[in-house]
From TrEMBL:
InterPro entries referenced in this protein's UniProt entry, alphabetically: CBR1-like, NAD(P)-bd_dom_sf, SDR_fam
Keywords linked to the UniProt accession: NADP, Oxidoreductase
Similarity annotation: Belongs to the short-chain dehydrogenases/reductases (SDR) family.
Pfam families membership: adh_short
GO molecular-function term, one example from the UniProt record: oxidoreductase activity, acting on the CH-OH group of donors, NAD or NADP as acceptor
Annotated protein name in UniProt: NAD(P)-dependent dehydrogenase (Short-subunit alcohol dehydrogenase family)
Keyword NADP: yes
């Protein structure tokens, strides 16, 4: 049933930045719905959050599966009647990690796999949840991007991200940023705001143990964008409250 309490859905929320995002939103009084590829993973994460006095629910969501996407949206519709926050957190890296520079050698298989999760499925998940977000007084969509998708910084001589040229992954995040820009403009006359978040170089499975930031800090940008007010950014690329170049 509809209520005044904010409801957030986070994909890929069973671990890493997604789980920490759910935790931090829950600590701020938001009801969180944990999306994960298996019910076991989703339930384990939701149970852990519940043990911390956070209202959390488990939902199966393999973002690449249409049936999962439709079932997840149906669950939210039946349980809450609306959705206030959608955080498209689920994503994957390419072959060989972020430092394994390969461009022309990128395989068709890598392109298809990475783009299917990091772009096509984000669009599809958002499409399913958009009717519920339109029922919110202040809908918020946060797309987990990466500074590696910045064309400006990738092309800059002596850029700090210059060594990271994993083409399929980087290109998928550039394309995701385009989705953010286009959707924000399409929804500009609604109460919904859409932004891309760069979490930072975080100590996750993808970021590796050599990353500079802890997971708790990596989740903060997503949480902040999920809770922005009516004067907050829209159609922007943000890290730690600062706008990044496309």
């Amino acid at each position: 049933m509809p209520s005044d309490k904010k409801v957030a859905f986070i994909s890929g929320a069973n671990r890493g930045i997604g789980f920490e995002t759910a935790r931090q939103l829950g600590q701020k009084g938001v009801t969180v719905i944990v999306g994960a590829r298996t019910l076991q993973e989703a339930k384990a994460a939701a149970d852990k959050l519940t043990s911390e006095n956070i209202e959390a629910h488990a939902v199966v969501l393999d973002v690449t599966k249409e049936a999962d996407r439709k079932a997840a949206a149906a669950f939210v519709a039946d349980k809450f009647g609306k959705l206030d926050i959608l955080i498209n957190n689920a994503g994957i890296g390419g072959e060989g990690g972020l430092l394994n520079a390969h461009t022309i050698e990128t395989t068709e298989s890598e392109f298809q796999t990475v783009f299917n999760t990091n772009l096509y499925s984000v669009v599809a998940v958002t499409r399913e949840f958009l009717p519920l977000l339109k029922k919110s007084a202040a809908g918020r969509i946060v797309n987990l991007s990466s500074i590696l998708g910045s064309l400006t910084l990738q092309a800059m001589p002596n850029s700090p991200i210059a060594p990271m040229k994993a083409f399929a992954y980087n290109a998928s995040k550039t394309a995701l940023n385009q989705f953010t820009v286009h959707l924000a403009i399409e929804l500009k006359d609604t109460n919904i705001k859409v932004n891309s978040a760069h979490p930072g170089w975080v100590k996750t499975e993808l970021g590796t143990q050599y990353a500079q930031m802890e997971i708790a800090d990596g989740a903060k940008t997503s949480v902040d964008l999920a809770l922005i007010g009516p004067d907050g950014p829209n159609g922007k690329f943000i890290h730690a409250g600062k706008e990044l170049p496309w």
